[in-house]
Structures are given as C-alpha cells and as structure tokens.
C-alpha cells in the first residue's frame, strides 16, 4: 500500500489548539486514539500527522483543519462570561465542553463573515439599542415590535417547542446567529451571547426546556441591545454571582417585560387566580397557555408587585428538586439533518449550503462548518426546503 502523505501542519499550532481546549497531552492522545509519544512527536515537529489524523485532532479540539496550517495561532476573542446559570449555582472555571462550545460558536460566526465577504455581500446588521436607565416596559414593547410578535400570536402557538422555533426565527431574522449546544452541563450554562456586531451570537443550552430557552434568548437579546447602546457586559467576568450583577438584572427585566407584557399578562392571569398564591397547578396551566416557565411567571409577578419576593424565592428553592428544566426525552433522537439545523440555525446552514452551491465553500470545508459528513448535505437541504420542524434539540 502507498504511504499516506504527511500534512504540512505548523507544529506549534497543534500544541496551542490542545492547550486552548484544556487537554493534557495524554488525554488528547487517548481521545484521538493515538499514542502519547506520537502526539508529542507531532507537536515537536519531528514527525507530521496525515490529513485524516490532523482532522481527527481538529474534531477533538473543536478547531477547523485549516487552523493547523496557519503560521501562528489566531487571536481568540474572549466573549462575555456572565453565563445564565440555574439559580443558586456559583461561578466556577469553565469546563472544556463550555470552552469548545464557545469556540465553535466563534468559529461559525467568523466563517459566516468570511463567506459574506467572498460573496460580495454585506451581513445584516441590527442597529436597535437599549439603555439601562430605560423603563423595562418600554424596552419590552420595543423588543416585541422588533420581533413582530403579538400576544395573540404567542398564545396561539401549539406548544412551547413551536414557540421556541418562532421566537428564534424572529431573532435570527434581525441578523443574529442563534446556536445550540448539547455538550455543556445545564448546571454550568443556560446561555450566553457574543455581542460584537455584525452577526452577534446567542448560544443556548439545548438541555434546557423550551420554556427556559425562550427566556434565555430574550435575555441575551437584551444584552445585544445594551451592547449596541454602548453598555458592554464582558467586564463582568470576575464577578462571583451573575444574577447579582446590575446588567444581568436589567436584562432579566427587559426579557420579562418582552415575554410577559404587563396589560396582556395580567388580563390572562385573571383566569388563573391560584398563580397569585403560588399554586403549582395554576402556574403550570398558565405556563402552557402563554409558553413561559412557571419561574418566569412568578418572577414577573414579583416585579409587578403582585406577589412577595419571599414566595418567589421559596418556590424557586423547591423547584430545584423538580425536573422542570430538562426537555422530555424522545428516546432515539431526531434525524441528523434536523439536529444540524437545530444546532447551527437555519440562517447559518442556509448560508453555508448557498456558498457551497456557488463554489465559495469547498467540499473539504463544508464538514468543518456543519459538523457532518458530506453525504448528508442533500438531506439537510431537503429539510431546509421543507420548512421549520418541531424543536430538534441536539
């Protein structure tokens, strides 16, 4: 058999990518199925991996194959780190899985910007702003106008999953990339955002329930509007409790006012009086009606001075032991084409496939962008053409 041709990678890039992924040499070699000495020889430049071996390392480090051929490491952008967490959890060093999810989001955003440039087109740009001193009710109404979602439309959606798809599509239509990850523990992150224009990114944890992801999207959308208004949140990385930070609280208020506008929400609430005393059944029934989590509903009632904060805190503590946050298991999972679109979002997948059909993206690069083999492209294209499907969490 002919020998495989070695890839002319830059050795320093191999060690750089491994270290940025938070992996020791032995752990990386074990995941890749290589002997540690072999990986050590590649990183030292004494030997070189084949293209297939380098691609395998790229999969583990969550880097595109092309990065190993650069003359020097690229400058990584460090996105804001005030991740939305479940209540009561404290800030810890991010896991390898979270670093990889953020790196993948950054890589996809940069890929999209590069493709727009190669196509000679300008990416959409959201110019709307928000300011911390603004009335939350006014900002909430502005968000609904931007997204063109009425209360009647919201209560008319068939399920929380359908609502998640519609909120996501509305946000994506404004030039925001919404990605999902299934690799990060829900105890570590519910969502975060990269607010840099153009093409800001919202990253959701698909382990969260649809109700939770809807609020997270609106929370991160509020962060993007605040950043557009000159109020960056990236400096809050050293704070121990994100929920106690000013802009976190403001973003929660803006999101809550957008999801549950005062007049319509209170009118709806009159049909569920038990919610005002924290009755779980009443809260669940109104949650299903308006496609918002019981926690978000009770938090909104506190802000509207309809229930005491002590009731909200007591209920929230009790709910920590309940499985209200995790989506129901489907026992097998959706087909791969639905998972790709759910993870990367319809706008990003459509852009990649359009660039591929116009010979701007090669068959070698396409798997790096979408995370699947080339043989699935036709199935993904057919799913896109078929229109939005029920939420297919990765």
Chart the SSEs and their pairings.
Layout lengths: L10 H10 L4 H8 L3 H9 L6 H11 L34 H24 L16 H12 L3 H6 L3 H13 L4 E5 L9 E4 L6 E5 L4 H19 L17 H14 L2 H8 L10 H11 L3 H10 L5 H11 L16 H9 L1 H12 L8 H5 L6 H10 L8
Parallel strand pairs: 1-3
Antiparallel strand pairs: 2-3
How would you describe the overall organization of this protein?
- By secondary structure, this protein is mainly alpha-helical.
- Among the domains are: 11-69, 434 Repressor (Amino-terminal Domain); 136-319, no CATH class.
- It is 51% helix and 4% strand.
- The protein is built from 18 helices and three strands.
- It has helices at 11-20, 25-32, 36-44, 51-61, 96-119, 136-147, 151-156, 160-172, 210-228, 246-259, 262-269, 280-290, 294-303, 309-319, 336-344, 346-357, 366-370, 377-386, and strands at 177-181, 191-194, 201-205.
- A three-stranded mixed beta sheet has the order 1-3-2, sandwiched between helices.
- Helix 2 packs across helix 3 (36-44), helix 13 (294-303) runs antiparallel to helix 14 and helix 15 (336-344) crosses helix 16.
- It is elongated, with a radius of gyration of 22 Å.
- The two termini are 40 Å apart.
